[in-house]
Amino acid sequence: MKKRDFFGGFFLGIIVGVTSFSALQYSGSAQKTEVDAVQGMQKIPNDKTIKVSSEDARLHKLSQAEIKITHVSNPYPEEKSGDNWWYWVKDEIVFQLEPFDVSSEMKKTRLFFEYGIHGNQQLTIYLWEKNEPHKIVLNTKNGERSVYNKVLDISPASLTKLIIVTNGAAKPLSKTDSRRAAYTISNLKVTPV
């Protein structure tokens, strides 16, 4: 690859990224025309035209957005370390969600969280789509740290609540920490896909 081609592609990527970011920040038909005109003129080194519409950029932004957690009930207070956060949970944790106003193309939801178990138990997850619960059961083992990361056939536009319940008993966290918990939930993300 020629040095000129590499730098041309590099700067083109920056221009497309900045232009796409601008398209997501500012609304209006004049902005859409300007962004589409700039993107339509750009060439990559092998003379192919890049075609990225404002709608494509908007959908890409939505696919990276998370459904907002508006309230959490029943756990101990949230703990954090850097970008990581978690809850110690005795028996049940409830995440109230703000339904996501998405395009009709976003029909599924990705559920991601990390969990740690204290004692053999079963975790049951209930995802509430309007008034209908969807149930997921996780059989776990003592001391297990795991990740749940799946795309579910649940519309993000109607997802209102996520509940995680255990059939296990809460145990003291340590000799020096008298709190009792059965499991931890960490870094939960609910994302439209």
Descriptive key words:
single chain; 193 residues; alpha+beta; Jelly Rolls; 2 domains; 5-stranded antiparallel β-sheet; 3 helices; 24% helix; disordered N terminus
Describe this structure in words.
It is a single chain. This protein is α+β, with helices and mostly antiparallel strands and 193 residues long. It has two domains: 3-63, no CATH class; 66-192, Sandwich (Jelly Rolls). The chain has helices at residues 3-25, 29-41, 54-64; strands spanning 69-73, 79-81, 84-89, 92-97, 109-117, 121-129, 132-140, 145-152, 159-166, 171-172, 180-181, 183-192. It has a five-stranded antiparallel sheet with strand order 1-4-9-6-7, with no helix packed on it. The chain is globular, with a radius of gyration of 22 Å. It starts with a helix and ends with a strand.
* Spatial strand order of the main sheet: 1-4-9-6-7
User: What is the CATH architecture assignment of the largest domain?
Assistant: Sandwich
What CATH calls the topology of the largest domain is Jelly Rolls
Shape: globular
Task: State the distance separating the first and last CA atoms.
Answer: 36 Å
Main beta sheet: strand number and arrangement? 5 strands, antiparallel
Helix content, binned percent: 10-25%
Instruction: Please count the beta strands (DSSP E, at least 2 residues each).
Output: 12
Taking Cα atoms only, what radius of gyration do you get, to the nearest Å?
Answer: 22 Å
Alpha-beta classification: alpha+beta
| Average of per-residue pLDDT values | 74
The CATH homologous superfamily of the largest domain is named Galactose-binding lectin
Q: Which percent range describes the beta-strand content?
A: 35-45%
Helical stretch tally: 3
Low-pLDDT windows of residues: 2-63
